[in-house]
Amino acid sequence: MSEMELPLVIFTVLSQTAVGLVAISAIRQHAADGPAGSVRPEWMTAALLLIAGLVASLFHLGHPLGAPLAIKHLGSAWLSREALGIGVFTALVIVGFLSARDRVNAGLSFAAAAVGLIALFFTAMTYSPPGFPALNNVMPFVFFLLTAAMVGAGFASYFTSAEKMPMITRILAVSLIIGLVVYLVVPFLWLSGGTVMRQTGLNYISSPLYWARIIVGLVIPLMAIWRMRTLAAWVPVLVLAGEIMGRIAFFLLAVHASANMGGIY
Amino acid sequence: MKKQLAFYIDAKRCIGCFTCAMACKNQYHQESGVIWRDVYELKEEIYPHRERAFYSLACNHCENPTCLNVCPVVAYYKREADGVVVHEQDKCIGCGNCIRSCPYGAPRYNPVLKRAEKCSFCWQRLDDDRKPACVLSCPTDALQIVDLAEFDEANAVQYPAGFPRYPSLNPSVRFRLPAMPKMIRRKL
Fold first, then answer.
1. Global confidence as pTM
2. Per-residue DSSP letters for B25-69?
3. Each residue of A15-63: pLDDT tens digit?
């Protein structure tokens, strides 16, 4: 098994939450009728989430002062592209927050959302290396997109007017259903892979952390929405807790290809 | 094809004595737990005999090295002259991306220096016309250097059982498979 990588857990979950928050904010402000909601605090929250995530990511480095050099290898290193993408996204979100009145300019809103989604793709490519056969595919992108949709929609509810709450609730409910299906199916699909991928699947389905993540982050929020027909303030907190547990599992339970050297692959 | 140095691992000759791994340790005095070369025993599912068989493995100095491709600070380079992949540790910021990415587990984390490091193919020794420490130390000649541009051994394989297959990386390593042990049974 691998390491928990807590700084990367915090960085990835918070930055993806910010991407979801900004994307949903752009849609809510400019692609749906009605009041925009509390846009300025929303973009300030996104900026603070990004800054907190970036600070957390420094603790992952052996030499944090070298972090600015991480954009040196844009030609082939997804990590360099990720650093640049998240940096540009953070800058756009800060400009959006500073320039916002009752709304953020439409062009800036959608540009920030697009850059955020591109940065999320770069992050996904960084975390799908050949060293982890179970993750060396499209799944990290799917997981990260789901984090943006679920936690982003959950947090967006704090800044949404009552008129648009049904829309946010629907986005969150649909994201949670897709997330539940994906997270229940994928570890069992891994069981049909090679030895290392199968071991990753076994690690997942035998881990209390994985099942706690399913129940806390997906099942309970879905049940709460279904029973109350609205979004209680505590639901996004549970969704965030579930994503943090899921991301810890992502780093902790994936098996490295070299772990089976000398055995059948 | 350009010159590409590679390790030739003759599992038929290897006796699993770990002298190669010890020679590497003696040469570079890595921190405790940091291993550039290790000897892996083939599991019984591959080699089901009372005799054991081994692969001595280190960095494979791949044709398309993923460590080099993913390093955000360009701390790796591949030597034009012989294809050896060199890690410049002073440039490394300790992000661990190469460690996660290499499917062969070659780059390791040095917890004291807080940077990655890996087998250098003893390039300083190569430049001085000397063999790498591991190759020099092998008592059975089970570990050798070959140039893949000239290597022509019909029985050599690149991906034997027990070694991950990553054609996109094209690891510069070749193996001779372990011999099947001779079974001597009394006639009933």
1. 0.95
2. HHHH-PPTT--SSEEEEPPTTT--SSS--EEEE-----SS-HHHH
3. 999 999 999 999 999 988 888 889 999 999 999 999 999 999 999 999 9
A76-85, A169-178, A196-205, B44-53: segment of lowest average pLDDT: B44-53
Q: Is residue A198 within 8 angstroms of chain B, CB to CB? A: no
Residues of B in contact with A129 (CB under 8 A): 66, 70, 97, 100-101
The residue type found at B149 is: A
Domain boundaries, given as residue ranges, for chain A: 6-260
Q: Which single residue is written with the structure tokens 């570990």?
A: B143
Any domain includes B181: no
CATH code, B49: 3.30.70.20
Which residues of chain A make contact with B71, given a CB cutoff of 8 A?
73, 77
Task: Give the DSSP H/E element, type plus range, for residue B108.
Answer: strand B108-110
Please indicate, yes or no, if residue B184 is contained in any of the structural domains: no
| Pairing relationship of beta strands B115-117 and B54-57 according to DSSP bridges | unpaired
The CATH class, in words, for A6-260 is mainly alpha
Residue B107: domain span? 5-176
Name the minimum distance, in Å, from the CA of A37 to any CA of chain B: 40
Residue B185: inside a domain, yes or no?
A: no
Q: Is residue B143 part of a domain?
A: yes
Domain count of the fold of chain B? 1
Which of A83, A259, A262 is nearest residue B162 as measured by Cβ atoms? A262
A 40-79 residues with CB < 8 A to B: 60-64, 66-67, 69-73, 76-79
| ipTM score of complex | 0.93
- Tens digit of each residue's pLDDT (9 = 90 or more) over B83-108: 999 999 999 999 999 999 999 999 99
